[in-house]
Structure formats: C-alpha cells, structure tokens
Amino acid sequence: MNLTLKIWRQKGPNDKGQMVDYKVTDISEHMSFLEMIDVLNEQLVEKDKEPVAFDHDCREGICGMCSMYINGEAHGPDRGITTCQLHMRSFKNGDTITIEPFRAASFPVIKDLVVDRMAFERIQQAGGFISVNTSGNTQDANAIPISKHAADQAMDAATCIGCGACVATCKNSSAMLFVAAKVSQYALLPQGQVEATDRVLNMVKQMDDEGFGNCTNTAACEVECPKGISLENIARMNREFLKASL
Amino acid sequence: MVKLDSKVPKGKLADKWTDYKNHIDLVNPANKRNIDIIVIGTGLAGGAAAATLAELGYNVKAFCYQDSPRRAHSIAAQGGINAAKNYMGDGDSDYRLFYDTVKGGDYRSREANVYRLAEVSGNIIDQCVAQGVPFARDYGGLLDNRSFGGVLVSRTFYAKGQTGQQLLLGAYSAMNRQIARGKITMYNRHEMLDVVKIDGKARGIIARNLLTGKIERHSAHAVVIASGGYGNVYFLSTNAMGSNTTAAWKIHKKGAYFANPCYTQIHPTCIPRSGDYQSKLTLMSESLRNDGRIWVPKHKEDVTAIREGKLKPTQITEENRDYYLERRYPAFGNLVPRDVASRAAKERCDAGFGVNKTGEAVYLDFKSAIQRYGKEQALLHGNQSPSKEEILKLGEAIIEAKYGNLFQMYEKIVAENPYKTPMMIYPATHYTMGGVWVDYNLMTTVPGLYCIGEANFSDHGANRLGASALMQGLADGYFVLPYTIGDYLSDDIRTGEIATDTIEFEEAEKEVKERLEFFINNKGTHSVDYFHKKLGSVMWSKVGMARNEKHLKEAIAEIKEIREDFWKNVKVTGSLNEFNQELEKAGRVADFLELGELFALDALHRNESCGGHFREESVEKEGPQKGEALRNDKDYTYVAAWEYKGEPSDAVLHKEQLEFKDIELKTRSYK
C-alpha cells in the first residue's frame, strides 16, 4: 500500500517543531508500524536527510520504550498493544497517517517523536519499592501464603510497562493509572503493608510535584493502556490515599 | 601473557562456596563509602548488582542506553526462573539442578560455577517474593511451578508469561530505593564506549550521553560489565533492537579474553519471518511446549496444499501428521532441550515439510491440551457428560489463563487465532552462551573488571536450559558478585577517589572521539543497517544452526569484506553533539563486524558438535543415535578463550581445561 505520513519533526528540546509530509510506497500489510518507519528512515538516509528519531527497543510490546500518538491515539488505532505491535493491516492503501509524540507538559519533547519520561522515574523512586535488603537469608518464599486471587490481581497491576500512554491520552495529562498500578501491586500483597502509608503519600506527592493533572474518571487511560490496567486500581489508590491521610 | 586461572576454590564441590565466603577479605562499612563501582547495563544481572552493592554501602554509578533501567531486555523473558526449592516434592535438589544444567550445557561449563548457581537459586525466589514479585500461586496460596525443556522435574517459578518483566521490575524497585538514597547515581541514555585502565587495573569508562552527544569520563575502583549478549550479530534475533556487544567487545580489545563465541542458542519457538523488511523476531515462550505439540504434515502433497492456501492445518487428520519430536525423542517428546528442538525443526523444513510460504515454519498445536484441560475442568465443575462446545470453552479458558498474553501477542503479529488454528513457529537466535571469560570471582582477565549475566560465558556451557538465564543473571547480581568484588576491593580502601584528568582517560577519550568523528565525516554511500543486514545474512546462512568447515571459511572471508566495505562506505547522518540514533547504531555494528569474524573462527576451530554448536562433520555415524550430534570430549573439553591481537583472525587461543569430578560425562540422550 502507498501512504502519506504527517510526522512531527523537532530538532531539539528548545527548537520549534512542525508537521512534515512524507510518502512511503509498497508497504506490506504484514509490516509492523515501526518497520514502516524504518522504511521511511532508510529512504531519508539514502537522500542524506535526517531520519525521524523515535524511541523503540524490544519491539515485542514489553519494554515500554516506544510511544507515538498515531491518528490521535496513543499507540495507534488497535487495542491492547504498543506501537511496535501495531501492524500495517490496520491501515489501507491511500491513507494519511498523522504521527505525533506523546503530548504532556510533564513529558517534554527531546527530538521528533522522542519524549522525556524521567518524571515517571522520580515517582518510582519516591516509593515504588519494598525496603528489603538482599541477604540470602530472607524468609522462605512460601512462609506467607497469598491468596491466588490477590496474587493474580497484584500481577495484573504489575504488568504496567511504564510507557506513558495513559498520560498522553488523558485530557488532564494525569498519571493516576501509572501510579495506581504500582501502589495497587504492593497494596494487594502482605509484603507491601509495612510501608503502605508512606508509599502512597510519597508517590502521590511526587506525581503532583511533576505537574501531572488530576483524574476526572474519563477512563481514556484504561482504553488506551497496552496492558489493560484497570481503572479499579485508581479507586484502590484513592482508598489507600484516604486511609493514609486520616 | 595472562595465564588462565579459574581460581576455583579447593575442597568438596558442595562446600566450595561456603568455604570461600568464610575466608575472603571483607571491606568494613565505613570504607565502603569511599569506594566507587561502575555497573554497565541494568538488566537482571546489572540491576541486581547495582542495587545490592549500593545496599552494602558502595557508591554505584549505573549506566543504561535506554531511558530507564526498567527497559533492559531482561524484561522480555517470558517463561520463568528455575530454583531447586523442591516445593513440588518431585525429588529436586541443588545437585539435580546442577546436574541438569551441566548436562543441558553438554558438559562445556565450569562445574564449580554451576554448582554455586544451583546453591543460591532458592535464595533468589525468597528475595523476589520479599520484593513483592507476584509469582503465580495455587489455590492454597503457595507458589506454583511448571516444567521446562530438558529436565524431569517442575522447578520453574513464573509470573504468567512475563516472568522476566516482573523480576526486572523487582530489581528496578530495589535500584530505585538506592537511587532515592543517593547510593546509586543513574545514568540513563548513556552508552559506554571504552574502558579505562590505569596500572593494568580497570579504573573507569568513557561514555557518551546519548541525548547531548557529550563524551564523559567516569572513574571507579572497579567496573562491572552486565551488558547482555551479542545475538544481534545475526541482525534478526529475539534481542531488542538496541542490544549490542559494544561494552563486551571494547573490554575484549583492552585485554579481557572472549570465551566460546560460537555457543549461540537458536530458540525453537519463535514467530517465523514474514519478509525482507523484518526488523526483529518474536519469541513464543518455551513454556508453550508444556502444552503444545509440534508437528508437520507427513505427506508432501499436504505441505504443498497448505502453502497454496488450499488446505488448513486443522483439516489434516492425526494419522497424516508427523509429531516429529515425539517420534524421535519418546522420553522427552516436545520438551527436549532447545538446541535439539531447533535442529529437528530445521531438519524437517530442509526436507521440504515447512508449512508457510518461506518453507521455514512448523506447527505448534494446542488442540490436545485444550481437550485434556476441558475434560478435567468439566469434571471439576461436576459436569459428567460435557458437550464438545463445553469442553472447548473450558479448555480454552485454562490455556488463556496460562498463556493468554503470548496468544494475544501471536494474534497481533500473525493475524491468526491460535486457539482455533495451530501456531506457526521457527527457530531464531535468542541467547548467547559465549561471552567474556571470567574466573570463579566473575573477574575477567583484567584486574578490577568484572562481567556478569549473559555477557559472561561461565554457567551454561554450550547450551542453556530454559528458565536458567533469569536464574543466572540474578544469582550473579544479588548473591555472587557482591561477595567476590569485596575480596578484590579490600585492597583499595586507601586508594581514594580515582582522578579523571589523567593521561589514561585522555587517551581513551581521544580514541572514542576520533572514531565518532570518522563516522560523521565519512559521508559514504550506504546506511548502517545495510551493512548490518549483510553481516546478519552471512551469519545466519553460514554460522547458523548447522555449520561446516567450507561455509565457516567462506564466512570469515565474507565478514572481512563487509567490514572493509563498511569502513569505506558507511553513511551516518546528523552530527556529533545531538541525539543521533544512526551514530549509535554505527558504533555497535562496527563492533559486531569484528565479533562476527571471531565467532566464525571459534566455530571453525571447534570441530565437534556440542550444544548449540553443531558441526555437520561431527555426527554419530551409526546406532540408535545415528545423525545426532557427536561430542568430542578427548579433544575439546575446554573453554576456548580468545585474546585480542589486532585483526579478529589474529586472535590467540587460550584453553581452560574443564574438569568434571562430580559428574560423569555422558552422551546427551533425550530419546
């Protein structure tokens, strides 16, 4: 298929960006979206032009590195996937595709489609851990039984890949789903109880300090989340936060 | 010349590690504050090491090329992690895990290292559970286990099909705690481009800030390389796009020996290639072989009909299917080790039975498992005579609970529903057992320079068993290196901070800068990927799943040609002092072009078949094992450690003889 791409080009963090049009031809429906961008970049290099910078690494939907806002949706039109798992069969010959970086004040653009997600790092550093040293004589892993239900729910929350689609897609640029996923994982496990109060207060404070917006229960984040992290986690975090604040 | 000394402690195998720990020198907590350690890479090995060393009180500087340590490629490991907990009561023990690992590695690993690995495996699970890693549990609330290829017990702990992700996030959380305390300084989006040696010891690195292009000097009392494997030498592999050999190769050029580069794991269950544009391959976890049965049609006319789209795999009846693994290896069936399963798939496809258009695919079928689980579930639900539809529904629900994310991944890539039609799979490069040579302390041949995780060579011999990579990465990082490095650093308590304004740093920095400037100024004719793809194609066709002298010699000559062409004609756009992904790739591919040649040279010199290294000249000529790999213990029971001497082909071979005192060398049979 032949496509027109409208891509956000921005030289550096302090430069002014603009949308630029490109044409790509003979794109196979079996290609992944990023392989289609590879084809474009190969063309650009061939013509001594600078290729489009974009973040990507594992290309199997788990590292959380790839981003991109495609036709107005984080990770593009398909559901439950990252951009690297989006395939060209989701598009048709003659389509015009608009590709922008994730947009949020707390995710400044570095170059073209690459954004800075260090705010997420700082939130995790504020409390996204259980304080246990490595010793070799931690108690036996089976010493505390954990109900299968709680363990499964904790696992569902823990599958967050930290890509930032929830923030990019939220009209308030809220990071609640991201923070709630971590808070929930530990809130559901006995090991997480000891530090539960400090954790939720510190992580929420850091989230606010980073300038992320508030949650107004639109649930767009849940729809766009490549890992299907449930909105229930936000409710759980709110409960944890309330409990900790009393 | 450095003499290879494995430094394996004396004494009984089971007592070595305990005795060692009891007698090494320690650094007192006050002195640890004055010691800096650099860790390159933040996967399971690097992340675990960085966190643990910081907990102990050292000042850690950790580096990763991604925007966060959480994105290291350990994240993509799916199936699980082995540990000799014997929670299932099926007779497992440290010795059995040790035995399986040595046997699985085809008797080409170092006995003492492997035993230590088995010994600390249980601690890993304890540690991860304490960190909040949500492993799968049974209804009683205890940890669940599953079975993996090449073993007869269930010792694999898992978190759905995302075990690597959960373990890495555990190590990442431990790192975050130390970053918050200021004990780890984290350098995201940085790439190490050389190691700096002072008086023969590793004392720092030169790194490039990938965002600004700035070249930085960082000093430390010891440097730890945890940069992963070199599978991307094949261009197409299951590794991440950025996975590279640069850190490992740079230290090799500065004196660290490189061991067994030809030991590569070709994983049997990956999604087949679909076209020339392909940028990477996707693994389908080996855990699928617990429930999936692998087959191709028995008759060529069915193969042709399938390729032409006239016949569907579900229309082929049982008697017309060739479940070739069950046929050839009745004892292990679909759970033979990875190298055996991969070669068997290649054998069928080479014989013309491949089931997709490229002729390189076999089926992985879940129909039997869905039926089996469906019937079992119906009974559990009190339904004595379930209908076909009920069985299917219940069975599919179990498969979904076990492998849901993998099935979804497959469906997104291939656009076929694997619950209804068999998956198509084909082998792909997945893991490299070879790597930087290290002694029992995990130290390379350069004092103060360590190498851990996939980047080193030590534990998996010629073939790695499933669910053992995560075990080794975490064992090295959490439980081995933090001890062994202390023994070395105890001599450094009076050294003080290492200055970076010395001639050694200056020279290393100059060399790095000159190379980067060369790339930008070369203005050649072809992109970096053009050369990488050419290298990959030679590697896959001539140094791939089956190797022979003729092809290996050709490969060595061809790789040399590609390398010369690269240095003449490579084109890198953009400039030095900016975020420049083409420039990053150029440096990595330049190193792959050297490593690839050493890889082929090592494969050529090892004229035996062992593990992932299969030489067509070395097969059983007769008997029940006819055509199977033939190992040559008399001539090749050693580690091949290569010393850099300029051109890759000038490398000098050093041998570490392997001794097996606690295990008998046998022919690996899975029949």
Topology, please?
The complex is a heterodimer of chains A (246) and B (671).
Chain A: E1 3-9, E2 18-24, H1 33-46, E3 69-70, E4 73-74, E5 96-100, E6 109-111, E7 114-115, H2 118-125, H3 148-158, H4 165-169, H5 176-187, H6 196-209, H7 220-224, H8 232-245
Parallel strand pairs in A: 1-5
Antiparallel strand pairs in A: 1-2, 3-4, 3-5, 6-7
Helix pairs in contact in A: 2-6, 3-5, 5-6, 5-8, 6-8
Chain B: H1 16-23, H2 29-32, E1 36-40, H3 44-56, E2 59-63, E3 81-82, H4 94-104, H5 111-131, E4 145-147, E5 154-157, H6 163-180, E6 184-187, E7 190-198, E8 201-209, E9 215-219, E10 222-225, H7 246-253, E11 258-259, E12 264-270, E13 293-297, H8 300-307, E14 321-322, H9 324-328, H10 338-353, E15 362-365, H11 367-380, H12 388-414, E16 423-432, E17 435-436, E18 449-451, H13 469-489, H14 503-522, H15 528-542, H16 549-569, H17 581-605, H18 633-636, E19 638-643, E20 652-657
Parallel strand pairs in B: 1-2, 1-10, 2-6, 10-18
Antiparallel strand pairs in B: 3-5, 4-5, 7-8, 8-9, 11-17, 11-19, 12-16, 13-14, 13-15, 15-16, 19-20
Helix pairs in contact in B: 3-6, 3-13, 4-5, 5-13, 11-12, 15-16, 15-17, 16-17
Could you walk me through the main structural features you see in this protein, from its secondary elements to its overall organization?
Chain A has 246 residues and is α+β, with helices and mostly antiparallel strands. In chain A, 34% of the residues lie in helices and 11% in strands. Chain A has a five-stranded mixed sheet with strand order 2-1-5-3-4. In chain A, a hairpin with a 2-residue loop joins β6 and β7 (114-115). Among the domains of chain B are: 267-429, Flavocytochrome C3, Chain A, domain 1, CATH 3.90.700; 503-639, Fumarate reductase/succinate dehydrogenase flavoprotein-like, C-terminal domain (Methane Monooxygenase Hydroxylase, Chain G, domain 1, Up-down Bundle). Chain B has helices at 16-23, 29-32, 44-56, 94-104, 111-131, 163-180, 246-253, 300-307, 324-328, 338-353, 367-380, 388-414, 469-489, 503-522, 528-542, 549-569, 581-605, 633-636; strands at residues 36-40, 59-63, 81-82, 145-147, 154-157, 184-187, 190-198, 201-209, 215-219, 222-225, 258-259, 264-270, 293-297, 321-322, 362-365, 423-432, 435-436, 449-451, 638-643, 652-657. Chain B has a five-stranded parallel sheet with strand order 6-2-1-10-18. A five-stranded antiparallel sheet of chain B has the order 12-16-15-13-14. A four-stranded antiparallel sheet of chain B has the order 17-11-19-20. The two termini of chain B are 45 Å apart. The model of chain B has no long low-confidence stretch (mean pLDDT 95). Chains A and B meet through α1, α2 and α3 of A and α3, α5, α6, α12 and α13 of B.
